[in-house]
Structures are given as C-alpha cells and as structure tokens.
Amino acid sequence: VQLQASGGGLVQAGESLRLSCVAQRSILSVFSTYNMGWYRQAPGKQRELVASISSGGTTTYTDSVEGRFTISRVNGKKTTYLQMNSLKPEDTAVYYCNTVTRALSWGQGTQVTVSS
Questions:
Q1: Which residue has the higher pLDDT, 24 or 61?
Q2: N- to C-terminal Cα separation, the chain
Q3: What pLDDT is recorded for position 44?
Q4: How far is CA 84 from CA 11, 12, 77, in A?
C-alpha cells in the first residue's frame, strides 16, 4: 500500500486547507478496516499524531488542533481527509497519513506552511 498525501501549501494565519490521502493499491475491503490517522512533523521535532478516525468513524484530536481540524474518510475512494481551519504558524509541518499503529509504509507527505 502506498500512501499519497496532497493538498498542502503556503497560507496565511487564519486561512484553511484540505488535505487528502489516498491509499493506493489498497484493497477496498481492507482499507475500510483501517483506523487511519493524520500525523505531522515539524523541523527538529518528532512526528506526532494529530487526528484519527476509526473504521467506524469515531474521531479523536490532539488538544492543539481540537475544534480547528476535522478528519474524515471515504472508504469507497480509499481516501482520508483533513480539513484544517483557522491555521496557525505553529501548524507548519509536513503532514502524513498512516494507520494509528503506523503499520503502513510512509509516503512523502505534504508540506503545510502557515505565515503570520
């Protein structure tokens, strides 16, 4: 399975972005069982899980993004989304998706840069 993230870019503080992650070459019935997550890694910091969505649709968020980010999924498209609103400079990072157990190979991620 190859995880292809996209949708990043350079925005100003307060603006929004929507990230997408497609699990390429994944069997649909298998993807639907994954508990998926969005991670981010800022320069010099460890990769952290910021949002997750279970196979049943239950979502969780880290405190720093709660109320601003929304994770969702469309199993038929083998795609996980991250809607990011009210972006802050501290959200600047490379964003990746993977299962919550980091079971799949990491893709290249997508760069999000938020200017103040």
A1: 61
A2: 37
A3: 95
A4: 11, 12, 20
**Matching residue, tokens 């991670």:** 39
- Cβ neighbors of 29 (< 8 A, separation 6 or more) are none
CA distance 40 to 45: 9
Structure confidence by residue, pLDDT tens digits, 67-85:
999 999 999 999 999 999 9
Q: What is the rounded CA–CA span in Å between residue 108 and residue 116?
A: 26
pLDDT digits 0-9 by tens, 8-29 = 999 999 999 999 999 988 888 8
Parallel, antiparallel or unpaired: strands 48-53 and 36-41: antiparallel
Going edge to edge, which strands form the sheet with 48-53?
9-12, 110-115, 93-99, 36-41, 48-53, 59-61
DSSP 8-class letter at 45:
S
Residue 83 contacts residue 69 (beta carbons within 8 Å): yes
